[in-house]
Structures are given as C-alpha cells and as structure tokens.
Amino acid sequence: MNKKLLAVALTAACAGVAHADTNVTLYGLIDVGVGYERIKGDGFHASRFAEVQNNQNGSRWGLKGTEDLGDGLSAVFVLENGFGPVDGKLQQSSRMFGRQATLGLDSKSWGRIEFGRQTNMATKMFTAVDPFATNFNSANMGTTFSALNTMRLDNLVLYQTPNLGGFKFGAGYSFNADDTRTDGNGFRTSDNNRSITTGLSYANGPVYLAASYDRMNPTDNAVGGQNTAKLSQWALGGYYDFEVLKLHAAVSQTRDGWFIGQSLATSPGNGYSDLGTYKLADGFKATSTMVGLTVPMGSSTALFGSWQRAKPNSDKLTGDDKTFNVYALGATYAFSKRTNVYAYASYGDNYAFHDGVTDTAFAIGLRHQF
Fold it and tell me: Any idea what DSSP says for residue 90?
C-alpha cells in the first residue's frame, strides 16, 4: 500500500493531478554480488575478480498502472528503468526507461495491445523453458539461442491474446528495432531495421510448450546499400514438471547472422556486417540445442543446470566455425518472498564459435525485490 501511495504521489507531482480510478504501482529490484571471470584463447589470457551486478535479474525500478475503462477494458502502461547498482549508471544504452516503456489497452475478452519498447515474444515465451530463466549472464540459453537473450525492440506494436484453454499467442512489428543505430534510423521505411516477432505457448498442469519466430529486415545501408541477409530464428522448447524435478529442452535455428548476445565480432568472416545488437552474415546458419533440469530442495532452495550448444555451418559470422558449448550450474536460497541469495558457475568452450577460446565464470550475490 505504501508503494502505491508513493507512486501516486510521484505521478501527481509530475502531472498535477491524480485520478481516483487509476491504479499506479512503484516497484523494483536490486541485484549485486562478487564474481570471477576468465577468458582464454590462443595467445591471450585475461581474468578479473570484481563486484558484479544484475546476475539473477537486471536491477530496475518502475511504474506500472491501469485505468478501468469499463466493460472489461483497461488502459495500461509500464515505465521501467534499468540501472547498475555498483555505480548507479543507466543500462540499456543509457535509456531512461530502457527495460520497458509501453502504453496500451487490455481486454479480458480479446487480449492486450501495447505500443513502445519491450522484449520480443521469444524472450517472453522461453523464460520458463530455460532453467536459468534467461538470466545469469552466459549461463542462460540466450547465449547460444540468439533471439532468446532478452532482446528488446524499440518502436514495437505488440498484440497478445488472453489465455485460451492453456494457449497464448503474441505477434508484433517493430518499425525500427534500435533507435540508437545511425545506419538504421532514417525517414524512409527501408532506411530502418524492421523486425517481426511471434510466439505461441501452451500450459497444462506439469506441461509447458513454447514456439517462437523472429525476423529482421535490415536497412539496405547495412552492407553498402546491397544487403541481402534477412536475419531470422525459429525456436521450439518446453518443460515437464515431475515435482521432484523439472526437465527442460529446446532447439532453434538462426539464419543469416545473430540477433543479440555475446561479443561475436572479434574476427568477422566474409559477408559480415555489424549492426551493433545485430550481426548479419548472409548464408550463415547455426543450430542450437539445450537440455536442463531444475531440482527444488524444500520451499526455499532450488538447484538448476543446463548444457547448451550452437553448431554453425560456416565461418561467415566470426571467422571461425567451431561448435560452441556452454555448461552451467546454479542455486538459489530464499530468505523471504522478496530477498534471496544465489550462486552460479558456467564454462564455455569454442566460445562465440572461436577454436579453443574458453570463458569461465562464477558469482555469488544477493537479490532484493520491492
């Protein structure tokens, strides 16, 4: 209640008026810890031990609200800021509300439509499939699954259905996927990096299944005005909850480049183009797989782990074509509903498809939600 009163007071101070039929909530999360990481390859070796942040979840604060418009229809908004607690800096390329900034309408009968910046459907659908919930840095399945690595889209119009007998579907179109890119931010439609995102899920008791498809049509400016790469990814996955343990599995294929994730462009191959968040490589293809499990240990503790890999068909993306593997283990212990500690460790070989490159990381941390 205090959070809601404070949020309403803040909103009233900015707008000059607070409406009684609008419900506004202030919320947030802070995640900090200490960790070690070592990157090693042929002729180089670097490591560090440091205070780390945003491991289990990205730190944030936000305002979300609804206004009842009658007949089951509501106006809805979310403004969510991402920040780094170790230094207080903005995240998501220094955007004020880089995690989410949306306004829309929500109906109990026909679903929700939103306008603004938020995650793609693959991230929404596959967070439940990944034992690491698409978090914990390189341990999460987005490391090898490209578009599943918490990909956010600017200028997105997104529609999501209500729950229909266990099924949920969503589809969206981004008129310009990343406003920070100078090579994809023009007046003409074709001057922008446009994206399509879709997803379907089914939940019934212990079964959860998900499918997604993402596609980006890059600006012609991406490759000297002659771009032919049409970056895309499909993914299938799910879990089965036996109560004593939960089994997870997924498979996907990414074509003509890479959506988001680790730094892949250390030695680009032929036909490569760097769009910052997106990497284009016409003809490149990588097939990714993941298997994992989650084991609850009472009401407060959970253990989880996964093995994921991505097998490329060529060296067009990074200049090498080795199969990329990541092995990871994690654990959480809850002191309360809002505060927990965690630990995780991950090891990647042939990292980012580079022969012999390894990445070793582990961290322990504290997370608090408010």
Answer: B
Residue with tokens 């998900």: 210
What gap in Å lies between CA 302 and CA 136, rounded to an integer?
Answer: 15
3-state helix, strand, coil split of the chain in percent (to 5) is 10, 55, 35
Q: Provide CB contacts within 8 A for 134, sequence distance 6+.
A: 123, 126, 127, 140, 141, 142, 148, 149, 150
Q: Rounded CA gap, 151 and 122, in Å?
A: 8
- Determine the Cα–Cα distance for residues 108 and 71; give it in Å rounded to an integer: 9
- Name the nearest CA neighbour of 188 among 219, 149, 231: 219
- CA 322 from chain centre, in angstroms, equals 25
User: What is the band of 320 on the pLDDT scale with cuts at 50, 70, 90?
Assistant: very high
Answer yes or no: pTM beyond 0.85: yes
Strand partners, 197: 172, 214
Distance CA 199, CA 217 (A): 18
C-alpha 143/C-alpha 288 separation (Å) is 10
What separation, in Å, do the N-terminal and C-terminal C-alpha atoms of the chain show? 12
pLDDT digits (tens, 9 = 90+) for 38-87: 999 988 899 999 999 999 999 999 999 999 999 999 999 999 999 999 99
Kindly report, residue by residue over 258-302, the tens digit of the pLDDT: 997 544 433 444 444 555 568 888 899 999 999 999 999 999 999
